[in-house]
Amino acid sequence: MAELKQFKLPDVGEGLTEADIIKWHVRPGESIKVNQIIVEIETAKAVVELPSPYEGVVTDLLVAEGSTADVGTPIISVRVGADDEPAAITVPPANGAVEPGLHGSPAPKAEQRQAVLVGYGVKLGATTRRQRRPAATPAGSPAPAESAAPASPAVTPARSAATAADASRVAVLAKPPVRKLAKDLGVDLAVVPGTGPSGSITRDDVQAAAGAPAVAGVPAVVGGGLAAVPREERIPIRGVRKHTAAAVAASAFTAPHVTEFLQIDITETMAAVARLRDLPEFEGVRVSPLLLVARALLIAAARNPMVNSSWDDAAQEIVVKHYVNLGIAAATDRGLVVPNVKDAHAMALPALARAINALADTARTGKTTPAELTGGTITITNVGVFGVDTGTPIITPGEAAILAFGQVRDAPWVVDGELAVRKACTLALSFDHRIIDGDLGSAVLREVGAMLTDPLRMLAWS
């Protein structure tokens, strides 16, 4: 006998209270299997794929793409145990692989894809947060009339009468501001071809579908021409941006920051990087100056353990860590994330290079896991990639120090009493003055600088 099941947004294990629905991989009327990926959500730390705990037929998507849902909120309804489940329409690509997000594609087998969650559901009252207005239920998620299960509050006769075109609208990939623009212009997103990433619909797509830029605004020079732009735009504070804002504000106003700067001659380090690239141990690995900056910081942390510690206010203790989970700050389309290399202190240089590259790649693709974003002990931020000399970095919450590495550029330098053109950069070390006094912070910064000026010191001091 058919039974209607509702899957509630779970806590993925990091104290999650809410998440944004990024993309649905299923639609009403589609058959799904256990462990099939059904939706992508964005938490305060990462994008996570959720697998289905049920096998059956999707009857309703209860939260629209672009909406925010609290943990414990039902997000999808599935009819399980039905004898008349419709078969999924399979559209495999030419190579036989299943493309993610393709509606009607066969469900991946359980052994081919591992579920990302340990368990489902939350205890009542497990999270405490302010009440807020429920998100609008997406139109067009019909409930099969033949279902013998009792009707859920989210499955009403009015919804069952929705058209197939309405149902497809739930799966449209567009950001909330784009959806609002389409509503203002009277454009049906279900019939608009998307030209953005992964086929998402952009503002230009909506305006093109409307026939002209119909947004009231002021003329602005864009690409050498005039285009109408809105006078202002409101962007919801969600996901990584929301988490980053809370974290940096807490850090800035909790830990008393001190920042010191040191300009160094990094010519020998640049030469060492060029030689490493030619070694067979680094074949297929991107080797950059950041690798030797990381190694220098790891050695300095081993020589000065207090720089790799944290302040436990509740216990009134300083926790000194004799391991290093090295954080690498990364700017992504979703905002700033700081994944970390676990036990970086124990890695040989080629392994450290591969680990840093892997973190950068997963951060760029938005696939950084919550586990990679927690447990860091000290951080490096490479501000040089933005073409700037230095900055005053904010300490990652729970850590005691962060090192900023500025751009490498040609600069006049005195060498053996003679003026020469050398490769120079500026280092900046911010540290928690509750834990690290000025003499210790200065010593760590000098040691990092000395090792980058003369890389042989890394061998002597390690």
Could you please describe the fold and organization of this structure?
The chain contains ten helices and 21 strands. The protein is α+β, with helices and mostly antiparallel strands and 462 residues long. It folds into three domains: 3-170, RNA polymerase II/Efflux pump adaptor protein, barrel-sandwich hybrid domain (OB fold (Dihydrolipoamide Acetyltransferase, E2P), Beta Barrel), CATH 2.40.50; 172-235, E3-binding domain (Dihydrolipoamide Transferase); 239-461, 2-Layer Sandwich (Chloramphenicol Acetyltransferase), CATH 3.30.559. The N and C termini lie far apart (68 Å). Strands 11, 14, 17, 18, 19, 20 and 21 form a seven-stranded mixed sheet that branches. A four-stranded antiparallel sheet has the order 1-8-6-3, with no helix packed on it. Strands 5-4-2-7 form a four-stranded antiparallel sheet, with no helix packed on it.
List keywords for this structure.
single chain; OB fold (Dihydrolipoamide Acetyltransferase, E2P); Dihydrolipoamide Transferase; Chloramphenicol Acetyltransferase; seven-stranded mixed sheet; four-stranded antiparallel sheet; 10 helices; 21 strands; 23% helix; 24% strand; elongated
